[in-house]
Amino acid sequence: MEQKLRQEARALLEQNKVDWIIGFEPGSLKFTATPLITKDKNDAERLVINPFIVNNLANFLTEIKGRVGIVAKGCDSRSIVSLIQDNKVVREDVVILGVPCPGIIDLSKVEQLVGKNRDELDDITREGDKVAIKVNGGKKEFPATEVLFDNCLACEFPTPQEYDLLLGEPRPPAPNLEASGQNIERLKGISSEERWAFWENEFSRCIRCYACRNVCPACFCQRCFVEETEPQWALPVPRWQDNLIFQIIRNIHVAGRCTDCGECERACPVRIPLRSLTREMYDIVDELFRFKTGMDKEARPLMTHYEQEEAEDFFR
Q1: What is the pLDDT of residue 306?
Q2: What span, in angstroms and rounded, lies between the C-alpha atoms of 263 and 1?
Q3: Which CATH number fits domain 105-147: 3.10.100, 3.10.450, 3.40.50, 3.30.2310?
């Protein structure tokens, strides 16, 4: 798959079908990949596909001008379709190189399982439904479900729904809904007072760095509401109340655009469980409107139209 990607990316640049290629190259840290954005056909040899390609590359499409070839996993492709629906991306300007995704490895889970820092690990490889970890000359195997990101455990569409070239065989949906949503269910199982105390504690740790916003393809406003001063929606200092307001309003803004890619939680430097909010909103949108983000580029965005028969159920 990786070799095919390199060949196709090089051909796209050589034939002037695209001006840019957006993909992944090996990161500077162990067991990481980092976004590669290039116009040089020779850079195609640096492209990789591995279990560590975490970034949702759709986030770059609103910034880059010209025709773009982009590597897209299942959730990424849906983000691209959502941007097309919102007229932020022109479909004819994008060549989507689809990657059927078996799930991305969460290095923090690996470290917790083996009790070692990633720098102390020798190798991590995906072998079917197992992940093999080599450390201190030995080898340990774990079920893939124990080391993948939570959002990957219940991925409904691991195969891109929109693509120009599919680089591998389609993959079935991931079935582990219980493991994927255990944090959300735990919050639902406690009282509202306990839940309030939980989020007060979590957002007291927020430093308002906006990493969650900056990595999100659905956050494409040129000026964010938290930067407004007339009116001022939130104070610039990271008080927990204002941090909570920021996340609540952000979740409302991305309703119908979130693909549960998990980037917001992954990027958070203080590890706030933001997916417990975004996934719940994702499910609410599905329940109330029978709408899943990024499935049909011809469909209208969720919040730009309504049907009269929705009203009675919605306003209950």
Answers
A1: 65
A2: 24
A3: 3.10.450
